[in-house]
Fold:
Amino acid sequence: MSVTITPSTHAVPDAEREEKVAAPGFGKYYTDHMVVCEWTEADGWGTPELKAYAPISLDPAAMVFHYGQEIFEGMKAYRQPDGSIALFRPEANAGRFKRSAARIALPEMPEELFLETVDALVKQDAGWVPEKIGESLYIRPFMFATEVGLGVRPSNRALYMLIATPAGAYFNPANAVTVWISTEYVRAALGGTGEAKCGGNYAASLVAQRAAAKEGCDQVVWIDAVERKWIEEMGGMNLYFVKGSGAGATIFTPKLTGTLLPGITRDSILSVAADLGYKVEEGMISVDQWRDGVASGEITEIFACGTAAVVSPVGCAKSAMGTWVTGDGNPGVITMQIRNTLLGIQHGTIADTHHWMKKVL
Ligand code: PLP
Ligand code: COI
Structure:
């Protein structure tokens, strides 16, 4: 199925676009186009349409507004040294989008269709892809229930959409992120939606995010719902702990128990850290082990990872059980090595031995 293309008649003028791309922020500006594709139970997927970015009109009784049946993805296109553009592991996002859809009773979008829409939008809006290292075009596919009705049941209509925004740093990597370990709220329990990238997970996290901000923290760290002691992940990122230092260091991350979002950056770092010669482990780490580990010096560095933030050092942790700081509170050496290696692969300056990059243009 190919994408129908209707170019915008009011694209942002070149000079203004260049100004925006030069200082992109995150989610501040949107590109000239978007993709929409409708699904109905009766007819399946329609032909995707690429057209001018614009508001959409929906019936107030569209199910998404009432029962929150919505999923999304986050992925990036990077400028390469020869001026071309490549996506980082787009098939992984296509696969997770399908799994999220299955969990939220939305239609599973065929991977080829998903990838075709991403390709079309990046090609059309190539002028919006920044050039600097650490900057990229952040691509946001999403899908929601559009059946009109208030009965609580899986919608028989859905709309898939794709938008994109030029993106700078989500967090400044020079500053370690401060985190709030929430003991009051729970993100996900087994059998729930923790593994799916659905809007509802984020809606449910906002009060904890607000509590974190009140404590002077940038992000929430979630602990498990049952024993209330095992570290799971952050509001929008997975977590890594570095034990030891130098060539003998171990890079540790909480294992995927069914409640964590299986991050594509997390998965990539398992390989990158092993390639760099570190020992890599997935397992369980408790809040007490975190506090005691940084106190004894066994845990030397902590970092968060995700598409938006890539790799961000974590410094100070605060919680109802006290406050503690990793190392000297500054970004760690191994954290920055992993960040720079991953960014190097993404920007095409380090060999892509895992064949993660997919050239678009
Ligand atoms: N965990 C949560 C809750 C997230 O929202 C994200 C962001 O996408 C991640 C982890 C990291 O996932 P990825 O590396 O695929 O972006
Ligand atoms: C991402 O890293 O892509 C995310 O979705 C995190 C956040 C912006 C929700």
